[in-house]
Structure formats: C-alpha cells, structure tokens
Design brief:
Elements lengths: L14 H5 L7 E3 L2 H10 L3 E6 L4 H11 L2 H10 L1 E6 L4 H15 L7 E5 L6 E5 L13 H14 L1 H19 L13 H13 L16 H13 L4 H16 L13 E2 L7 E2 L2 E2 H18 L2 H18 L9 E2 L2 E2 L2 E2 L7 H7 L2 H10 L20 H8 L3 H19 L7 E2 L2 E2 H18 L2 H18 E2 L2 E7 L2 E5 L2 H17 L3 H18 L32 H16 L2 H20 L5 H11 L3 E7 L1 H14 L5 E6 L19 E6 L2 E2 L6 H10 L1
Parallel strand pairs: 1-3, 2-3, 17-18
Antiparallel strand pairs: 2-4, 4-5, 6-7, 8-9, 9-12, 10-11, 13-15, 14-15, 15-16, 17-19, 19-20
Helix pairs in contact: 4-6, 9-10, 9-11, 9-23, 11-12, 11-17, 14-15, 14-16, 15-16, 17-18, 17-19, 18-19, 19-20, 19-21, 21-22, 21-23, 22-23, 24-25
Length: about 675
C-alpha cells in the first residue's frame, strides 16, 4: 500500500529513520543537503534524535510527527532533521550536552533541539514534548510557534547566547595538559569503592534509587577489585547482592534469557522492556566472571541463557549481531513478555503450574497493567517445601515450564527488531561471548563470536578504514573511537579462546589506525571522532562512562594489554598518556570513571600473561590446565608451534621439542616451563 507521504528518509538504512520516512514532516537525514537548505532559506533547524527501540520516541512520533497540523507548522518554519543516535553518537553526545547546558536538566530520548542554520549551534531544547500542555510541559505545537517567533524577533540575543554555549562546549572539550612526571597511584580506586558503598542499596542491590540501571562498568570494576581482595566482605556483599537480585528480578527475562534496559522500581521488578546489545554483551561477560569468582550456579545459568538468547534471537544469518529488540509490540510496551494465570495454566501441566505459581509468587496481585511480569520471589528450597517435591524435581519442572512458555511466547507478535549492525556494540558482544566460551568450554559461543568478527572484518573494514554501521547490504559512516577500541578488546578475548595469527594482525592494524586517526598526541587521550571526520560544533574526548564504557578507557586498556603481549613500548606509552590525560577528571569523580580505573589497575599491576607453545592435544591440555588454575583476569594464549612468524617479542616465545609455557607480568618473565606440573605449581603460587 502506497503511503500518502514520503520524505527524504526513505533512502536511509536505519530502521529508526525509516520509521519516520512516511511522516507528513519533511524530514531530512543529517547531511550537507539539509544543512545547506537551512542556510539558504535562513530557517532554524529542528533536530530530533532518537532510536528505534525508544518508547517515548514512538509516543512523540504518533502524537506529533504523524499529525498533519503539527507537521505543517514544522515544515513552514523549520528544516527538520532526524538522527539515529545509535548511528551518530557523535551528534547525540554534543547536543545532549548542549541540552543540559541550556536547560540544566538531564537529557534523554527523544532529544528535541533547535539550531541556528549558519553554525548549527542550539538556542533551545528539550526531550519529549506532548501534543497539548500536560505533565507540567508545554504542548509541542505551542513550542514550535513560540520558537519560530523567537527566532525572527530575537536574533541578537540568540547570537549572544550561542557564543556562550559555544564557549562552554569548548571548555568542556578541553583537557588539562599531561604532566609527563605525573605519578599514577591507586587513590582514585579506593575512593570509587567508597563512593559505590555510599550509594549501594543493601536491600535490593544496585546503586542509587529507581530508575535502576545495571551499570556494567561499575560492576566490572568491583569484580576486578574483588579478584585481588577476595576476603573483602564489603566488596563481596555489593557484588553478590546486585548480581543475585538482578538475575532473579524482572529486569532479567525469566522465560527467554537476556536483560532489559533498566528497572523502573527499586527492586528490579518491572523493567523498561527494550533489550539492547550493548547491555547484554557486558552483562554476559560479567555474569561469567562472577561465576568464575564466586561459583554460584545461578550466575552460570544466567550467563548461559543470555548467550543462548543472543545466538537465537539477535544474531543475523550473516554472522554479526543485531542492535536491539523494541520495548513495544502491537503498540503496547511489554505486551510480548507479560502473562495472565489462565494462559499459564492452559500451557502447563498441573505440576509445572503449581511450581511456577510458587516460584514467581502468582498468588500476589498482578504487577503490570493487570497481568504478570515474571520475577523470582522464592528460593528452590521454599518451592520444594510448598509443593512436596525435591529440589531436583523443582528444577526440572521449572526448566520444562519455561521451555513451554518460550515456545508459546514465540507465537505472539514480536516486538520490532533493529537489524542494523553496529561495529562497537558487536565488539562488546564478541568480548562477552568469548569470555563465556572460555569459562564454559563452549564451542558454540566461540563460533558465534568468531562469525561476528569475520563479518566485521570482511564487510566494515575497508582499506585500513573502519566503518560504523551496516544494514541491507550497505556499510557506511566513519567509525568512532568506540568502534576501534571495543573491537580490539573483543579480538584479544577471542585469541584467548583460540589463537589465530590473522586475528592478531587485524588487532594490530586496528590499533595502529586508532592511534593515527584519534589520538591527541599533544594532550594525550583520544578524540571520539577521527581526525578526518566531519567537523561538528564540538570535538570531545569523552572520559566518563555512560551506558557504554568510556572509549578512551577501553583504548588505554587494550594498548596496555597489547603493549605487554608484543613488547611494544609505543602502545604502552600511549596507554599511559591516556591515563594521565584523564587523571584530573578521574580525581574529581572517581566513580564516574570506573572503566578508567580498571585500566589504571592494569597499569599499576599488569595482569599475568601465560603464553603456551605446543602442538596437538597437548597444547589444548596445557591451555585447559592454565584456564582452570590461573586467576580470572590472567591472560592465556595457546599458540601452536606451527605459528613461526609472530610479531614483537612473541617471536621470542619460541616452540621447543616439547610444550612450554612463558609466564610474564608486565616486562618480567619467569624461566620457560616445560612440565605441566611446574605450570600448575607456578599458577597456584601467585
């Protein structure tokens, strides 16, 4: 059926932009055509930023952008530009910060900004606007009319404000000069632990009040600290309470696996139902490592189910991972995931229903708009006692019941799936899947990560230049710092599963390109955009974690890891420069820089690297022994003897007549070990 309206978004590949391609609004994608049109017609730009799984983006689209009257006002007074924040995080980061400067409020999506046409500087902004005044907010049509009038009558005041905004953005983008003599120490790590303790919810886990986000960067930092201090009860409590409560709560999909975006309440019961690749990659790796450190079988189950969900529901036939599953289906948030007792009863046998009724406490009133969103309220021992069954029988019945519910749920109308491939987010999932592959000796997880990496190298790596996104046969957009840094980390984790010299060569190519394209060689650290990127109103060096780990920090971490692996001092120096460039900011707010603190930890005490050279089954046996007896954060690479042309100091880790292992910490290495019992002894004695 032909739509009544078609705008310039119709030729885009982003599912989010295509959602708006038939609006009556004359939308344009961000680009020179729209920017030049604004300059020529001297109309302000209405910039709208969102993403395909964003619930309030859908609401505003339906209320305003599909409305003919609203669209007529927009088309008359503005040049309207739509941006997918997942494709253009560079634009999103700048205008989110500008919105905060203008309104002194936190941002979010949809982001609605009004820009002057000649320089794209914002003079007014907000997030969601309702069609009519409500929630204490003005109606969107009224906002449009007032802004159009203000632009005509107040040009000079707008110019004056724009100068202030530009000055503020420039100041924010500046970092102090690196002091070469600066001595880095563990002080901010200790401060961050105290700050996390202060905000820790001792009853429900997590940090701070609702809305509650998992904050993977914080959890990663705590796990790494706990690995070095296993007797620290404070660390153990924060970790175990948070991981357990999230795993049993409604923020985790109790039927199909995988984590939703965040919880709207303090106790992780009701989530915002979108599922993001960038959450689930880190959480997969974190639950894997939590299981390795603590040994709780719940954490192993959650990690495995999350990995299985990823492969089943969001890995493309081409190999890479899709971006998101929407919160909404059939226009209703959470509809795909919620249940009523009669439906459950009809799907399960009597024992299964009795078991899940106790396990999910379905005796209580419905918790989500008259229906139930499942979350665990009782332990297996309690359920066994109430149902008169053994714990093993309860476990069996839960597995059986969940399988039937998943089969039935899959017959429903699915939420939308954003099938664009993002390089950075794939890097995060490659890391998570590789760590699960190692911990659980799972070939399927390794193959899943390997397929994603192969797709990215074959499709998004073009003549020494990485691209950020792919959809419908088209790879495009200049890659960002996160794309390079996250992908290199994923490769290094995959090499710990199984050695591949081609993958190592790719990691080196990416790292060299990252240094050439992004590093601030004078001030240290890395810009978010490359030196040849489109010029925007700000070029920043983001150091703080947000929903994603800070790209600067991951870059520092991989530079240190690769630098020690290869003996490349230029990598080590660049990693140190990045840490020093962030030092003042880390000191002001340590808990906001937890990924940098993990890089600092690696700098102060480099993780142990175990290089094993051998062949055949014996190489695998030594690798398995090392993985079983080393620390969780040790780095193990089993390199076949047939690999004879290795880069850097790896070429000195020579094969011998028998299998041998090289154990190094930083630049210090033990005498090569040629007996498996000696390897075990040295690993245990550390």
């Amino acid at each position: 059926m032909t739509s009544k309206h078609t705008n310039a978004l119709i030729n885009e590949t982003s599912p989010y932009l295509l959602q708006h391609a038939n609006n009556p609004v004359d939308w344009y994608p961000w680009g020179e055509e729209a920017l030049e049109k604004a300059r020529t017609e001297n109309k302000p730009i209405l910039l709208s930023v969102g993403y395909s799984a964003c619930h309030w983006c859908h609401v505003m689209a339906h209320e305003s952008f599909e409305d003919e009257e609203t669209a007529a006002i927009m088309n008359k007074h503005f040049i309207n530009i739509k941006v997918d924040r997942e494709e253009r995080p560079d634009i999103d980061k700048i205008y989110q910060m500008a919105q905060h400067l203008l309104t002194q409020r936190t941002g979010g999506w949809p982001l609605t900004m009004f820009l002057t046409p000649d320089d794209q500087l914002p003079f007014f902004g907000g997030t969601y606007f309702p069609p009519e005044p409500r929630y204490g907010m003005p109606g969107f049509k009224d906002v449009l009319k007032r802004i159009a009038g203000f632009y005509v009558s107040e040009r000079e005041s707008i110019k004056k404000q724009n100068r202030s905004v530009k000055d503020a953005l420039d100041r924010i983008g500046q970092t102090p000069a690196v002091e070469t003599a600066l001595q880095l120490d563990s002080t901010p790590m200790d401060q961050a632990v105290r700050q996390l303790e202060d905000s820790f919810d001792s009853r429900h886990g997590g940090f701070g009040p609702a809305p509650k986000f998992p904050h993977p960067s914080n959890l990663d930092f705590l796990l790494r600290m706990a690995a070095d201090d296993p007797d620290n009860n404070g660390l153990a409590t924060m970790i175990d309470t948070t991981f357990r409560k999230m795993a049993l709560g409604g923020v985790y999909d109790q039927v199909g696996g995988g984590f939703y975006r965040y919880s709207v309440d303090d106790h992780w019961e009701i989530p915002h139902f979108e599922k993001m690749l960038y959450d689930n990659g880190p959480l997969l790796g974190l639950y894997t490592r939590a299981w390795q450190l603590i040994g709780h079988p719940l954490y192993q189950r959650i990690a495995r189910e999350t990995a299985d969900w990823v492969m089943r529901d969001i890995q493309s036939p081409e190999g890479a991972y899709y971006s998101t599953l929407d919160a909404d289906s059939e226009g209703v948030e959470g509809k795909f995931y919620i249940w009523d007792p009669e439906e459950l009863k009809s799907l399960l046998d009597e024992k299964e229903f009795s078991t899940i009724k106790q396990y999910f406490n379905l005796h209580q009133p419905a918790n989500f708009e008259g229906r139930w969103h499942l979350h665990v309220t009782q332990g297996l021992d309690y359920v066994a006692q109430q149902t008169g069954q053994s714990i093993d029988e309860v476990s069996r019945l839960l597995i059986s019941a969940r399988g039937k519910l998943l089969t039935a749920r899959n017959q429903r109308i699915w939420p939308g799936r954003d099938e664009k491939i993002l390089t950075s987010w794939n890097g995060l999932m490659i890391t998570g899947m590789a760590r699960a592959a190692i911990a659980f000796s799972n070939e399927d997880y390794f193959n899943s990560a390997n397929r994603s990496l192969a797709f990215i190298r074959n499709t998004l790596w073009k003549q020494g230049h990485l691209l950020a996104t792919y959809k419908d046969g088209k790879a495009h957009l200049n890659a960002y710092l996160d794309d390079y840094a996250f992908l290199v980390e994923g490769i290094l984790d995959l090499l710990s599963c199984r050695w591949d010299s081609d993958w190592l060569a790719f990691a080196i190519e990416l790292t060299d390109a990252m240094l050439a394209k992004f590093e601030d060689s004078d001030g240290g650290g890395f810009y978010f955009t490359s030196h040849d990127h489109e010029q925007l109103i700000q070029r920043n060096k983001p150091y703080m974690d947000d929903a994603l780990p800070a790209g600067n920090a991951v870059a520092a971490r991989v530079l240190l890891q690769l630098g020690h692996l290869l003996g490349k001092t230029d990598y080590l120096t660049a990693g140190e420069r990045s840490l020093k460039s962030a030092w003042t900011l880390i000191g002001h707010f340590p808990v906001g820089h937890c990924t940098f603190l993990t890089a600092l930890k690696d700098y102060l005490r480099p993780p142990r690297q175990i290089i094993i050279r051998g062949s055949g089954d014996e190489l695998g046996q030594w690798q398995q022994t090392a993985q079983g007896e080393s620390g969780v954060y040790d780095l193990i690479y089993a390199i076949p003897d047939a690999e004879t042309r290795l880069p850097g100091i790896l070429n000195q880790r020579e094969p011998g007549a028998e299998t041998r292992a090289y154990i190094c910490t930083g630049i210090q290495c033990l005498t090569p070990l040629n007996r498996l019992d000696l390897l075990s002894k040295n690993l245990k004695n550390d």
